[in-house]
Amino acid sequence: MTHPIRIQVINGNTFAAMTQGIDESAQSARFPGTEIVTTQPQIGPQSIEGYYDEYLAIPGILETLILSESQFDAFIIACWGDPGVEAAREVTRKPVVGIAEASMYVANMVAARWGVVTTGHRILDMIEKTIHRTGFAHRCVSIRTTGLAVVETETARQATLDALEAVGRVAIAQDKAEALCLGCAGMSGLDHELEHRLGVPVIDAVAAAVKMAESLVSLKKQTSKALTYKSPELKPIQGYPSHMQPVNLQRDS
Amino acid sequence: MTHPIRIQVINGNTFAAMTQGIDESAQSARFPGTEIVTTQPQIGPQSIEGYYDEYLAIPGILETLILSESQFDAFIIACWGDPGVEAAREVTRKPVVGIAEASMYVANMVAARWGVVTTGHRILDMIEKTIHRTGFAHRCVSIRTTGLAVVETETARQATLDALEAVGRVAIAQDKAEALCLGCAGMSGLDHELEHRLGVPVIDAVAAAVKMAESLVSLKKQTSKALTYKSPELKPIQGYPSHMQPVNLQRDS
Amino acid sequence: MTHPIRIQVINGNTFAAMTQGIDESAQSARFPGTEIVTTQPQIGPQSIEGYYDEYLAIPGILETLILSESQFDAFIIACWGDPGVEAAREVTRKPVVGIAEASMYVANMVAARWGVVTTGHRILDMIEKTIHRTGFAHRCVSIRTTGLAVVETETARQATLDALEAVGRVAIAQDKAEALCLGCAGMSGLDHELEHRLGVPVIDAVAAAVKMAESLVSLKKQTSKALTYKSPELKPIQGYPSHMQPVNLQRDS
Amino acid sequence: MTHPIRIQVINGNTFAAMTQGIDESAQSARFPGTEIVTTQPQIGPQSIEGYYDEYLAIPGILETLILSESQFDAFIIACWGDPGVEAAREVTRKPVVGIAEASMYVANMVAARWGVVTTGHRILDMIEKTIHRTGFAHRCVSIRTTGLAVVETETARQATLDALEAVGRVAIAQDKAEALCLGCAGMSGLDHELEHRLGVPVIDAVAAAVKMAESLVSLKKQTSKALTYKSPELKPIQGYPSHMQPVNLQRDS
Amino acid sequence: MTHPIRIQVINGNTFAAMTQGIDESAQSARFPGTEIVTTQPQIGPQSIEGYYDEYLAIPGILETLILSESQFDAFIIACWGDPGVEAAREVTRKPVVGIAEASMYVANMVAARWGVVTTGHRILDMIEKTIHRTGFAHRCVSIRTTGLAVVETETARQATLDALEAVGRVAIAQDKAEALCLGCAGMSGLDHELEHRLGVPVIDAVAAAVKMAESLVSLKKQTSKALTYKSPELKPIQGYPSHMQPVNLQRDS
Amino acid sequence: MTHPIRIQVINGNTFAAMTQGIDESAQSARFPGTEIVTTQPQIGPQSIEGYYDEYLAIPGILETLILSESQFDAFIIACWGDPGVEAAREVTRKPVVGIAEASMYVANMVAARWGVVTTGHRILDMIEKTIHRTGFAHRCVSIRTTGLAVVETETARQATLDALEAVGRVAIAQDKAEALCLGCAGMSGLDHELEHRLGVPVIDAVAAAVKMAESLVSLKKQTSKALTYKSPELKPIQGYPSHMQPVNLQRDS
After folding, report:
1. What ipTM was estimated for this complex?
2. d(CA B163, CA B151)
């Protein structure tokens, strides 16, 4: 590896304070030879707290990746739910990592049974679907929501810690969770304090994703272009800028 | 029911010929007391043939629904993959039906084992995920792709029929499928001819969705606003017009 | 459709008051161009409250369908558990709909997570198996039994409502159900009052099945005779009347 | 055990030659201290080859058990599909064993991966559902149908052997099955010759069920009357004889 | 069967009092024509209470079987978790039965929904994996741990009974379990007293396994040597005695 | 990180040439700040090609880890099947990574559908169980065995490459696999040449595990000692050396 590994971390939300929090986590987690730039989309919701938010966030996430595709070696989508990760894999050969999947892989390697602690009650279904889709319904024994807004995870750090501690205690005592994933990018950086309070591994999903991205780059593994993740088929896409048109995204050959 | 049931069918693709084909199917399937308007988004890909296309189609689909929410009693998202259907359920109380789920419900009621025949090879993973997510991995015994582009399903009807017949024969003989879902909105209207050729029920997903939408309106069942499908949380969404801002989408009370 | 859609609703139980209650629900749910006749078998248990009841009910259900097969366009088996629905599909080409599957399809279209509220505690296993078999173990998050006898659902309507409200509140608050299926044909007609009390969609399974049957007839979809649901193989069946002998049930050609 | 274990084997079919074949298998499999009586219902189809046949067979199976309940220590339902086994468990405390489940337990104990070879093509769905319901979708790697009628398994023994050998070879070579269950009671007695021809364990389901029934009696384990398998609730059952009325079937206390 | 069925029961633990308790259960369960010898490995943990214990127990279990392979007709591995059962099936053609699988088969035949009551809290994951692997995640509705050490199940019989009764009551009342498996070989012999206290079938796993082993021998079914359970491939195994070398274990021909 | 990350890679097999091949792969994959020592157990089979081999390998694997526990920051068990990984997590707080799980995580991040290509036909069941246990039955679409002995993967590199290419082509063309995991530690180092021949990502499981181990150490995540992976309970373990006795393995506090 003659040059550093360059990773772009894309906050799925358009909330600058959260982007900064994510960046701090990501920078703390990187190896010395890694450079990380954290950014946020130009368009999309301040925070992702439901399906509507999620789907309106994805075009901005994809555009962010597309505009800087040549400058990085790997990309991280920083929202627990991995919004748009399959589409991102179509528009680049370089590895794309979702923070949800990354945190679940880490949890699997340190605990037989784990849980997810997260924000608003309404996202229970989104969290469950993310876990099922990834394959870990049998490993995840607890999903506990705090009722916090995503924005509060940045603006009310102590209250967030206390709320996570409270639901975490239930996950451990009642559901027999042995590790916890922080199910929101806004909770990045709270893992060490929560580990201290709860006595079980707590996974910062952004940090986990940084390691997965470094790993893939170091292994020189790129996204398969064999079938599912081929470059988008050629066709006009109305209402999107030129740089998002398939004709400008061919990376199969 | 003193007024007609008014249904908006939203083509997930921005291809006018396809919108017209979908409309013909939808009009043929409606009950006399139903009015159907088929339309297509202002923004989005000409055709959906992968995850990138799908995610860029969703904002336009949602906008189309939002702009005419007050004028219809139910909404259909016409793309086999049901793009954005959960988000659409957040922005209205009125029923929203995906054509994939509708066609699978119909298939379940007429056959013990069924298959899906569809377009490009690369969407195999999308089709599988749609079926798994809906719950029918044990009922769907065959997914067969033709390699056709979505546009060809409109512009090359005879070739499309022949290709569907060919893969359909394999699905029936080899995989023991007893009915077939047409896994693309562009194939609407081909069901009767294919039934004639193949001798098993062939489900036109758009027609199936029209019946499901009529059913829900007639039953006066609306989307639950208890948790998952509550109106989007209040927050700014950058780069989207005013009519798409959560503050203008509150329908919980 | 030049003639009305004629649907026979077959109460799985031989309890006349229940047949009448089912008929009221069915008539309320039909489209203007639909004619519905509700009936009950000549033989079978007064109410189905276990596997023994269910299996003794099925021959009478099938006989009822066979005797009037030529007079209707579709058939509904009105017992949450869909007793004999696969066999019914063998003896006619015309659509056969079970009320359990119909109500679950409707629930899926209006809620991300739903539950079933029903009668006696002992049928928990039957209800679970019905849900698993249909494919919705991941969507149904709650099964709550009231301990009511089936007959009481007709003879003690207020007590039934109160009992359903009580378990419904637990399903919503504790299990996070966002809609409820009424898991017994005897509960038909209670959906609107329960919706009012509980604030979530409540599905009357009989009404849901009427819409599914109308849909299938309107779509001109008939049961596949390709393999599983072919007419019964020719053979004598001892102890059953002539009209139930396979030789008189051939409808494949 | 001061008296012999008395087991009734109930052929699910009303075909006397088959009852005799089943009896021969059962007698060969019993321990010296076991007495076996094989019988067939008074009513029901000559052979079970679909859902219609199966459901019309169940009342006769149950009646047969009820009429001799006091004379035996355990009961076997001899039809691969285990028709009515849950209902049978409601009407007696004594163990009831289905031959399908018994054969699958045996297969699990002698092979990592096994298959089922059976009769008509149309029962593929029934066989699959039986396996799924029992819990062995991950162990059963092959279902191969011969197209034989059930009656032929008795009247054309050599042809049956040859057909089973042919599909068995495919199951072993192509699907990597390491043992085979004979998926029809009519195939009883063919296991040894097929083992000789194919070189893998072949399970005679009737023989397997005899051992399971002996085991349960010897262990003094009876059917749980805690919830699901309680005696049928009291109610009239129209069109069935007095001895089949719930009031005469109480065995909970 | 001209000679008695000879079964070796191998306690997975090296605790003599437990071996004696297992032997008493096994002797009580055998048919008159069966001879049982219960033994314990020369090497391995006093008790199996976690994965480390389990994996260190397996070589001793296998050695015990190998050393007496020619003297018995079948083998039972007596530890709920079935340690090494697949490997044991490679080193002999004779049937090998795990007590966990045997007890679950029995539970399935007497109850629709059952639970497991067992020792230390930490083995929850092991118990779950054993159930999933066998295929009964849908049948097992309760796993309740007492916190007892395995040794206590022998040395403190009354306390063990009381603890099992306590968790058993929760399994029945709260989880709706209708039968219980004793999830530890050390609990052998407590089934009758617990049945008396709890009113549901309680399965002694050792006794269940004796019946399964007798069944397989009587059926003359041996382990398939077609693929997975072939004799170990020829190779040196360092640090193990000559009698455990593959060259001395060939039993395929 | 002031000192290098020290990782021990434990070959599950006792074949020195294979240990060397594994070491080459591991050294190639490490970051500059990582030190790797590859070793092999003192006891155990030359190669793992079945369950017997696997279970006899585990004590030696665990002993190797225990003897050097204090000298490393993380441990890798290098055998596709992850033998003993749960037990290893009991005897140390430091991360333990199995190469099978690691390779599957990498495959998931670069391909929607992937396969495993491996050695002897008989291990099909072991490979399937490993995939199911980890949670990826829905992602792994192909398992293809070459029939090669494990030793041949080292001694016949060109033949191994050709055999893997042959089965890999089938996995890609027929099963639609889009990436391949090398399902044997002996295949380490062949990934680049196979990628070149096949055109899809090929995952070297040892290399993947090195990245996962580095990741966990860098994240300062250690194995949860909350429940399942607590230190082994105190008890004597007969026939094992003092350093393997639980009393000398306490790491919970």
Report:
1. 0.98
2. 14
